[in-house]
UniProtKB/TrEMBL annotation:
It comes from Nonomuraea africana. CDD domains: fer2. This is Xanthine dehydrogenase YagT iron-sulfur-binding subunit. The keyword Metal-binding applies. PROSITE patterns: 2FE2S_FER_1, 2FE2S_FER_2. Residues 12-88 form the 2Fe-2S ferredoxin-type domain.
Length: 176
């Protein structure tokens, strides 16, 4: 309980770097990054699916690494680099994964697509850095991104429509 009573939120002024732009924001210390992005910064790409970190619809990149924004407290992110699906494109040029998702029809309703895209960007960076997954046959070798590897590495992102075959194909095309 704070000095003002149990119902008064504790807030903090922080500066977020979102998609290359510095954004000063005052946040409740209990507020998630997902809520800050959607409610305060009007970045609605990341979706609130389960709000428990189980579906991956809220996935964004934090300093280039994948995070579930529904589980990340905004107050911990002062001066960290956040990339949302809105920041993947280079100006008017879509990210190669965005183009591949369109070409491979790797979405149906599209609700999970922003999280899938951010997760795929992070996953490709992890593989390029040589990080093995649970299905990597030889953890000392450079991991190849075959279908099994892509499926395992993307397993934290669910698609209720079942567009997995096309999602894997789109990611595989970009990985090659």
């Amino acid at each position: 309980m704070n000095a003002s009573g149990p119902d008064v939120p504790v807030t903090m002024d922080i500066r977020l770097s979102v998609n290359g732009n510095d954004r000063p924001v005052t946040v409740d210390t209990r507020e998630t990054l997902l809520d800050t992005l959607r409610e305060r910064l009007d970045l609605i790409g990341a979706k609130k699916g389960c709000d428990h970190g189980q579906c991956g619809a809220c996935t964004v990149l934090l300093d280039g690494r994948r995070v579930k924004s529904c589980l990340t407290l905004t107050v911990t992110l002062d001066d960290r680099e956040i990339t949302t699906v809105e920041g993947l494109a280079d100006g008017d040029t879509p990210h190669p994964l965005q183009t591949a998702f369109i070409e491979h029809d790797a979405f149906q309703c599209g609700y999970c697509t922003p999280g899938q895209l951010c997760s795929a960007v992070g996953m490709l960076a992890e593989a390029a850095a040589g990080w093995p997954s649970i299905v990597t046959p030889d953890v000392r070798a450079e991991p190849g991104l075959d279908e099994e590897e892509i499926r395992e590495r993307m397993s934290g992102n669910l698609c209720r429509c079942g567009a997995y075959v096309n999602i894997v194909a789109a990611i595989g095309e970009v990985a090659r």
